[in-house]
Amino acid sequence: MACFGCGSGSLCVIICGFFRVRTLFGNIMVVIRLSRGGAKKRPFYNIVATDSRNRRDGRFIERIGFYNPVASGAEETFRIAQDRLTHWQGVGAQLSPTVARLVADAAKKAA
């Protein structure tokens, strides 16, 4: 396999492939989106960084938070690791519309 710029040979496709680099298959788009879990009628979403071609609940690169829409009482509804979010956005990851809305709402509440 050929390496496209980092000089580490075939390992580049595995290690650098997560960061919008050019591989043998073209550019990889990293997306930060929701991955559904939980039981029927009791949704729980993990906020994950993943390749855009992967399935919604499939393989992901990193879990960076969660969203629990049915939280009640003192339970936490939303949490995200802000440092990891800025890291992924810095290397070119795009937020899904829902995650962008949740992050904006959390920023409003914090202010």
From TrEMBL:
GO MF assignments: structural constituent of ribosome
Entry GO terms, CC: cytoplasm; small ribosomal subunit
InterPro entries: Ribosomal_bS16 (IPR000307), Ribosomal_bS16_CS (IPR020592), Ribosomal_bS16_dom_sf (IPR023803)
Keyword Ribosomal protein: yes
Ranges in coiled-coil conformation: none
Ribonucleoprotein is among the record's keywords: yes
Keywords attached to this entry: Ribonucleoprotein, Ribosomal protein
GO terms (BP aspect): translation
Pfam families given in the database record: Ribosomal_S16
Family designation: Belongs to the bacterial ribosomal protein bS16 family.
Name of the featured protein: Small ribosomal subunit protein bS16
